[in-house]
Amino acid sequence: MSKRPPTVRRRRLGTQLRKIREERGLTLDEAAALLSMSKSALSRMENAQVVARTHEVNYIAMMYGLPEDDDLRSALVGLATGGRSRDWIRRHKLPGKGPHYGEYVLLEQDSSELFTYHADLIPGLLQTPEYAHAVMASVPSSGVSDIDEGVAFRMARKEALTRPDPLLIKAVIGEAAIRQWVGGREVMTAQLRYLRELIEWPNVQVQILPLTTTKNPGVDGSFVILHVEAGNFPIVIVDGFRRTIFIEDDEDVVAYREIQAELCRVAAPEAETRHCIEQAIRNLESRGREDR
User: Fold this and answer.
1) Domain spans of the chain?
2) Residue 44, Cβ neighbours under 10 Å: how many?
3) What does the alpha-carbon distance between residue 52 and residue 10 come to, in Å, rounded to a whole number?
4) Is there a contact between 244 and 104 (Cβ–Cβ < 8 Å)?
5) SS3 state at 124
6) Would you tell me which CATH number, out of the four given (1.10.260.40, 3.40.250.10, 2.60.260.20, 3.30.300.30), belongs to the domain 8-81?
7) How far is CA 267 from CA 49, 123, 195, in A?
């Protein structure tokens, strides 16, 4: 039986520890002697082969000369500790999805800010239960064995938007997402009314990318950028049908940040976005009256 790959946090912690050691001009042997630990133990930690405990990371940071109030030291300890997601996941059962889905959700709960781009779908954190059910039911072999359970878990994730220090979500959504009747006219009408309500929240920012836009910086596909508080780092997630890709390299993250900035530039501003959503609602309501 193969071992599960190391988590994003463990990989990042190992990379950071190795980087700090190398910046101090220490070989593995020299660092191990300084830390009074075996070379193999330090190597396994740097290569994300073992779980580093909080007190171990604190000790290594201290021995490497990082002050107790140093931001980098706090970030290292945060990577080892995790954040609010540890308590959150105890309260919510993870549905049977892909092997990396749970890690994505934990990072999401531990983030202070989320940017998401979707060309043809309302993002999960902005969905109604009925819309979420229709989305999950649309995908054969989605990995969710019980759709009702999957919907309940998705709704639980939205606690991040109403916690004491709420997650700031910025979304660019393709106009096709508000035009398609996912789940039928009534489900879609309710979804758009809910979206109209959400855009009035101070921590929810939505822009529609009109169908008439002549430039689409997000043509390569949907993606999410999280800024994870516990560890203080950004990460890009590309969530596909059967796999989730975590993009951690700083240069690659910067490239996605540039796409984010360009999407926000070409997408409709707040007032126009609100008008676009209201127009879609009126169209659905009008069709409903015609059908009666």
Assistant:
1) 8-81, 85-291
2) 14
3) 8
4) yes
5) helix
6) 1.10.260.40
7) 43, 16, 17
Q: Does the pLDDT value for residue 228 go beyond 60? A: yes
Long-range contacts of 82-87 (CB under 8 A, 24+ apart): 82/9, 82/106, 82/110, 82/230, 83/109, 83/110, 83/228, 83/229, 83/230, 84/109, 84/110, 84/163, 84/230, 85/109, 85/110, 85/230
User: Rounded to whole angstroms, how far apart are CA atoms 204 and 171?
Assistant: 8
Angle between helices 270-291 and 185-198 (to 10 degrees): 160
Q: Give me the residue label for tokens 């054969």.
A: 140
DSSP-derived secondary structure letter, 51? P
Sign of CA dihedral 131, 159, 113, 82: negative
Q: Tell me the pLDDT tens digit for each residue of 11-33.
A: 999 999 999 999 999 999 999 99
- The order of strands in the sheet holding 204-209 is 204-209, 168-174, 111-118, 223-228, 233-239, 244-247
Instruction: Find tokens 């009109």 and name the residue.
Output: 210
Summarize pLDDT for 23-72 with one digit per residue, the tens.
Answer: 999 999 999 999 999 999 999 999 999 988 999 999 999 999 999 889 99
Tell me the whole-structure pTM to 2 decimals: 0.89
State which H helix or E strand residue 172 sits in: strand 168-174
In this structure, whether the domain defined by 85-291 belongs to CATH 3.30.870 is answered with yes
What whole-number distance in Å separates Cα of residue 173 and Cα of residue 180?
Answer: 13
**DSSP code, position 7:** P
Compute the CA torsion angle 239, 99, 109, 144 (nearest 10 deg).
Answer: 80
